[in-house]
Amino acid sequence: MSDFNHKYNTDDALIRAAIVGLVNELNNKINYENVWDNDSKKIVRVPFFYAMSGDERFLQDYFSNWSDCAPDFIEGNTDPIPRGTVFLTGVSILAANLTSRYVRGYYTKEIDGELKRFNSYINSIPLQLNFSAEILTDTTLDSFKIVQSAIAVLYRTLVFSINFKGFRIPTQVGFPDTYALNKQFEFTYGNTDRLKVTFDVELQTYLPIPDPKEEFFAGKNIQVIEANIEAPTGSGDIEKLVIDAATWGITGSQGLTNSISGNIIM
């Protein structure tokens, strides 16, 4: 049996899907230009990652070139600068945005290796995911350019969609009006603090919950049958013709003189 979508342990996790979508949208969108000499310039792109741990350490055996789909594999620990990192700080329900749960919606399910469409009442629970983002830089000038690029590219909203359990869910990301820049004025041996740009991000989406008791298969096609009724030649049968047309579900006065055509929905 062929599957349209192999199931993994990471599937059917709405929060993870939202995080992956956010990182994908942010990745390499913030960029700035550095001048090397009179004849050469370089576009510096800021890759984004999700913080798998809280200590900012990168695992060994990572990649060296983030712009390639299949970059070269290198040995050792890599520490690209600049780079952005997002942290999930909280999830909350937007109770004020709750709508009626008695609204029907369509979604797709895989049954026996075949994608089928279903319809049911959908309870859409609005969610807000709060993120803290930071971008590490090596110079103050680069941090100024990063803030400028972030405002130009991201401000004020970013809209994308994610797939979750057969639903295509719209997602909206809001960016702040202020960006914090820290400057290290005191240095000591063993100090690993870096120059960074920090800001908060709010992501809003919703969790769709279909009602299993009201679910039905929505893949049946509506058949349309064309019915032609010839009009009689005698004027005495006009009343019978109108009755026959109403019986077949045909409306309209056109065709009473020659013929009547109508669509009958089965």
The CATH class of the largest domain, by name, is Alpha Beta
Indicate the CATH architecture of the largest domain: 2-Layer Sandwich
In round numbers, the mean pLDDT is 77
CATH topology of the largest domain: STM4215-like
SSE arrangement, N to C: HEEEEEEHEEEEEEHE
Residue share in β-strands? 35-45%
> What ranges have pLDDT less than 50 throughout 5 or more consecutive residues?
59-71, 240-266
Radius of gyration: 30 Å
Q: Helix content range of the residues, please?
A: 10-25%
Give the class from helix and strand content and strand pairing.
Answer: mainly beta
**SS elements, strand count:** 13
Morphology: elongated
Word description of this protein:
This protein is mainly beta and 266 residues long. It folds into two domains: 14-217, STM4215-like (2-Layer Sandwich); 224-265, no CATH class. The protein is built from three helices and 13 strands; from the N terminus they run αββββββαββββββαβ. It has helices at 14-26, 140-154, 238-247, and strands at residues 31-35, 41-45, 48-50, 83-93, 104-111, 114-137, 157-164, 167-174, 180-181, 195-210, 216-217, 224-230, 259-265. Strands 3, 4, 5, 6, 7, 8, 9, 10 and 11 form a nine-stranded mixed beta sheet that branches.
